[in-house]
Design goal:
The chain is mainly α and 73 residues long. It has one domain. The protein contains 3 helices and no strands. The radius of gyration is 15 Å and the shape is elongated. It starts with a helix and ends with a helix.
Length: 73
């Protein structure tokens, strides 16, 4: 896997993580059970797990930027 592919997958994962948080906050703030939002959250979580597997299988497991910078120092 090329560094460009790894970077693209990492950025996609980070965007999905932002979406996951937004969906979780929406669910937490709602008084009603919105199955559409719950399904969307489930789909986002599955996508994150898939990207994590691809990165791990390629020998480049996902590492948050802050943790990566601490490791490099």
């Amino acid at each position: 896997m090329t560094s460009i592919e790894i970077e693209a997958l990492t950025k996609a994962r980070e965007q999905l993580a932002k979406n996951r948080l937004a969906l979780a906050r929406t669910i937490a703030a709602s008084a009603d059970l919105d199955l559409g939002t719950i399904d969307a959250l489930t789909t986002v979580i599955a996508a994150i797990e898939s990207i994590d597997r691809v990165l791990l299988d390629s020998g480049h497991p996902y590492m948050p930027g802050s943790l990566f910078q601490e490791t490099v120092r």
